[in-house]
Amino acid sequence: MMLRTVALASRAVQRRMMSTGAGAERIAFIGLGNMGGHMATNLVKKGKSVSVFDVAPAAAEALQGAGATVAGSPAEAADGAGVVITMVPSNPHVLEVYGGKGGVFETLQKNTMCIDCSTIDPAVSRQVGADTITRGGRFLDAPVSGGVTGAAAGTLSFMVGGSTEDFAEAEPLLRLMGSNVFHCGPIGSGEVVKLCNNLMLGISMLGASEVMNLGVQQGVDAKLLASIINVSTGRCWSTEAYNPVPGVVEGVPASNNYVGGFGSALMNKDLGLALDAAGASESATPLGSLAKQIYQELSDNPEYATKDFAVAYKYLQEISGKQ
Q1: Active site positions, annotated
Q2: How do residues 115-168 score in pLDDT, each as one tens digit?
Q3: CA 179 to chain centre
Q4: β-strands 144-145, 156-161: how paired?
Q5: H helices within 135-285, ranges in order?
Q6: Interatomic CA distance for residues 323 and 311, integer angstroms
Q7: Predicted confidence band at 10 (pLDDT cuts at 50, 70, 90)?
Q8: Which candidate, 60, 225, 61, 33, places its Cα nearest to that of 117?
Q9: Which residues have CB under 8 Å from 271's CB, separation 6+?
């Protein structure tokens, strides 16, 4: 009995080392965009051995300068890694990174922990999770909130779906990149919570943009208006921390010609995923549907598509008086 207990404990320690990147275990990080690049950099800065891959060579080379090893494909990055973290834009990208030619599944080892931080359809997360487990690996969906500034500062919030055991083992690693880590339920639950959050965010940003535009059009100083709203019942993240009016909050995309941050096209994508989930569960989303229509317009316009989603304020400014 004692030998069996020791053996079980030893395997648990091995799994924990594998999932947290402890000791000599290597972490593969695939997807080094606005969010993933900062997340991978934080792991390197905190002493982890990280192998990186991105379709844009320059993004991987930047991490190489920070101390990471550059791989030529997701399969190469994942080969021998104890943990694989993916952060890519959409459903097709996740499916390709894991199951496509040169994908993670080609070199996936038994008990490797795969953590997908992409924001995608919960059904796709469940599919990739099942495929990972079938191949002997483990899987968590762990989308994030906090934006580029949170990714750079290591203060992201992770919404995690997966088994209780896998969550417990991965949590220390996730806390190297974030300050809040929540277990939301089984695989796919993290995506559900993230989509709910982004549905709220899209709606609230449009609300903030609308009221700020109204106040400014009526001659009220934008900073004064924001300062009053932010100590009143209209206060929200989109008015206080990420105000869409240029110059109201320093260091946010709105004060840098809406460059960087979270693109309007990405918000449009996430709203579409949220509405798809709502349709599957027959949940009413009248405000979400209106928000999707507006962000679809922004995404279809080359002037706005790549700008931060707070550019909705500029859009409302430009159409004011033209209706």
Answers
A1: 194
A2: 999 999 999 999 999 999 999 999 999 999 988 889 999 999 999 999 999 999
A3: 14
A4: antiparallel
A5: 147-153, 164-174, 189-217, 222-229, 237-240, 264-280
A6: 19
A7: very low
A8: 33
A9: 198, 199, 202, 288, 291, 292, 295
Name the DSSP letter for residue 308.
B
DSSP string, 48-70: --EEEE-SSHHHHHHHHHHTPEE
Radius of gyration of the chain, Cα coordinates, nearest whole angstrom: 21
Contact 215, 223 (CB under 8 A): no
Please report, as a single letter, which amino acid is at residue 209. Answer: S
| CB distance 195 to 279 below 8 Å | no
Q: 137 near 107, Cβ under 8 Å?
A: no
The span from the CA of 21 to the CA of 4, in Å, is: 26
> How far apart (Å, rounded) are the C-alpha atoms in residues 36 and 18?
20
CA angle centred on 69, ends 67 and 75, rounded to 5°: 155
**Alpha-carbon distance 261 to 160, whole Å?**
23
Q: SS3 for 214?
A: helix
What's this model's pTM, rounded to 2 decimal places? 0.86
* CA 277 and chain centroid, separation: 18
Give per-residue pLDDT as tens, 75-113: 999 999 999 999 999 999 999 999 999 999 999 999 999
C-alpha span between 136 and 206 (Å, rounded): 44
